[in-house]
Design goal:
The protein is an alpha/beta fold. The protein has helices at 3-6, 27-37, 56-68, 84-96, 122-132, 152-165, 178-190, 207-217, 223-232, 236-256, 270-284, and strands spanning 12-17, 43-46, 72-78, 101-105, 136-141, 169-174, 197-201, 261-265. The chain has a single domain (3-280), classed as Alpha-Beta Barrel (TIM Barrel), CATH 3.20.20. Bound molecules: flavin-adenine dinucleotide (FAD).
Length: 286
């Protein structure tokens, strides 16, 4: 199943998971996938390491397991630290496993790895994948601007290059302020970007996530979000419930505003994904 076709039928609701570390067993994520399967998402995407210590064999195994479970998988593919030959081997493996959907990414630059020069931008990877097989290709987008871009206008003009290269839909970076997404969406329309854009939603349900959000994520934190996090940061259950409620609120507003799809960063937490799915299932395609 090619994911691009889904957008013609409905508001897409998808999940993202990450593969286990090299040292851990795949059994834990397989159990999570069994639980996520029951929630019937339109697809599940699997993150993929940009190089170094990551275990990308597990990413392919997890994508295959999603397919075995009867759900459409999408595999992420960051390219900055790989040569054309290495990406070609990975594409052959993806094809061999019958996986049709790829999120084509540049990947983050790492101070410890000298980047290879074959794919300076995701658009270069998209062109390469298109020549390599019949894949449906998505790209990433940044409602609050990618940190390497000087302005949001530059970033959106670069995003247009990704779409012109062949990305059939886009998945957004997480955000907590829906207005930033609506402003971005308007700018993409003005730039002539006419492919569906899924909104990336991250439920913040524990303290370590809050710390990461504040220090590294770059998303603006609305006052009501900060108030909730401050109030409940030392009460794990209340924080979890408040984080779920905040995400549900965001999703309801996005659906009411005609969003093309919701991509839930599950952080491999099936409980949280279930609570959110149950809360929005009646309205997502009402
Ligand atoms: P690009 O589209 O190449 O953009 C990067 C920068 O280059 C931007 O500033 C852009 O404006 C500029 N640019 C783009 N094209 C051009 C051009 N043709 N000419 C000049 N400038 C250009 N990382 C992982 O390692 N693994 C993952 O699994 C993963 N999953 C992700 C999933 C989502 C939904 C998102 C939003 C991000 C994910 N990332 C992942 C992170 C991503 O790899 C980083 O954000 C990375 O820094 C940028 O990747 P990109 O594909 O958006 O890059």
């Amino acid at each position: 199943m090619k994911i691009r076709d889904l957008f013609e039928e409905k508001t897409v609701f998808s999940f993202e998971v990450f593969p286990p570390k090299k040292t851990s067993s795949v059994d834990v994520i397989y159990k999570t996938l069994d639980e996520l399967k029951d929630l019937k998402p339109d697809f599940i995407s699997v993150t993929f390491g940009a190089g170094g210590s990551s275990n990308n064999q597990f990413a392919c195994d997890v994508a295959s397991k999603i397919k075995e479970n009867g759900i459409t998988p999408m595999i992420h593919l960051p390219s900055i630290n790989y040569t054309k030959e290495e990406i070609s081997v990975t594409l052959d493996e993806i094809k061999r496993r019958g996986i049709e959907n790829i999120l084509a990414l540049r990947g983050d630059k790492s101070p410890d790895i000298e980047p290879k020069n074959d794919f300076p931008h995701a658009s270069d990877l998209i062109t390469y994948i298109k020549a390599h097989g019949d894949f449906d290709i998505a790209g990433a987008c940044y409602p609050e601007c990618h940190p390497d871009a000087d302005t949001i206008i530059d970033d959106i003009m670069n995003l247009k290059k990704k779409v012109d290269a062949g990305a059939t839909h886009l998945i957004s970076q997480l955000f907590f302020d829906n207005d930033s997404f609506y402003d971005f969406r308007e700018k993409t329309v003005l730039a002539g970007i006419d492919v569906p854009i899924e909104a990336g939603i991250m439920p913040v349900v524990n303290k370590s996530q809050i710390e990461r959000m504040v220090t590294t994520c770059g998303a603006s934190l609305p006052r009501k979000f900060v108030r909730i996090m401050q109030k409940y940061e030392n009460n794990p259950e209340a924080l979890r419930d408040a984080g779920i409620a905040y995400a549900i609120n965001q999703i309801v507003d996005l659906i009411a505003s005609g969003v093309d799809g919701i991509h839930l960063y599950t952080m491999n937490n099936a409980y949280v994904a279930r609570k959110i799915s149950e809360a929005v299932s009646g309205i997502i395609n009402a």
